[in-house]
Amino acid sequence: MTIDRTALGFGTGERAVYAADPWSSRGRLFAEVSSPTRSDFQRDRDRIVHTTAFRRLKHKTQVFIGTDSDHYRTRLTHTIEVAQIARALARALKLDEDLAEGVALVHDFGHTPFGHTGEDALHDVLKPYGGFDHNAQSLRIVTKLERRYAEFDGLNLTWETLEGLVKHNGPLLTPQGEGTRGPVPKPIRDYCELHDLEIDTFASLEAQVAAIADDIAYNTHDIDDGLRSGYLTFEMLEDVPFLAGLMAEVHGLYPRLEASRFTHEITRRQITRMVEDVISVAQERLREIKPGCAADVRHADRVIATFSAGMAETDRQIKRLLFSRIYRHPDIMRIRAGAAQIVTDLFHAYMRDPSLMSSHYWVDHIAGLDQPAKARHVGDYLAGMTDTYAVNAHRRLFDRTPDLR
């Protein structure tokens, strides 16, 4: 019996010539028989959703640590919002929506507990052993640390999804072989020796829309959460002309709107304007570059899915506002210091006695490893923790655990 893919809906949507072709993937590190009911990119997305790493995102910090509110974004809800925006951009640009969504869903797998605070703390203690990079950690998770399949470690994702994960923010190497953002992390270099992800080129346009969707999502939802928390006020938003214009527009249409609805009307307009800006820029650059296939996108002389100059300035103004009013607020900085102490204390405790990592899959073998190998396992264990798991682990091992409220 054979299955008619077109009868299932495959191939019915118009796909641009520069889109990634789900039926002509470069394949997986370990060869597998293709599915008769799903494209390879659909299978990647589905594998990502069913991982332990994906579930852990629900208890990992986005911005606000240890709050009493159920309504602030977590790393999981942020990821879902990114995926929605990435899929909308992909559809507008006639790309493969499943690949764009898959890259968006996996892009934050490597984040530690406590957001960027945890990442900074873990990087500091791992500096003697190569440091820590959440993007490289995401690659380790999907190629090594997820242990779900009998025939291989990781998820055995397609080349295109792994490329998008590693390069969604742009090439990691210049044509001359120099790092574009510093040295290329060792986990990425090691994997590329087995399965070359061509880190000196741009990623697919699907990965590019996932990357810009990340910026759109957190710029918007951090404003929403900032207003909810009280760290931001509507008066503070006036410092950004783009946001001031949105507020004036909403106020003109609905002069007596309650604060919660007023916030939603602002943020949904913000997403719409930013998405439309990216679509307009991408369409213009596609007309200029005229890519005839996905490879032409990778070898273009510039990123295609990005903001216009005006919206890029708005993006910088919003980030400055968020840094000054939220990310560097004294209350947040106090909580961040406590979170960093938890990560640092746990690292040193596990390095002294690896048997304390009782649930780590390699715990029986770690004691015999050299220091760099042992440190990498401890880093894997810590990076995989949720906020709540890290706090509880610290309470079991130490007399005093910082209060993250």
Automatic annotation (TrEMBL):
SUPFAM superfamilies: HD-domain/PDEase-like. The keyword Nucleus does not apply. The keyword Hydrolase applies. Keywords: Hydrolase. Coiled coil: none annotated. GO terms for molecular function: dGTPase activity. InterPro entries: dGTPase (IPR006261), dGTPase-like (IPR050135), dNTPase_2 (IPR023023), HD/PDEase_dom (IPR003607), HD_domain (IPR006674), PHydrolase_assoc_dom (IPR026875). Residues 75-219 form the HD domain. Belongs to the dGTPase family. Type 2 subfamily. This is Deoxyguanosinetriphosphate triphosphohydrolase-like protein.
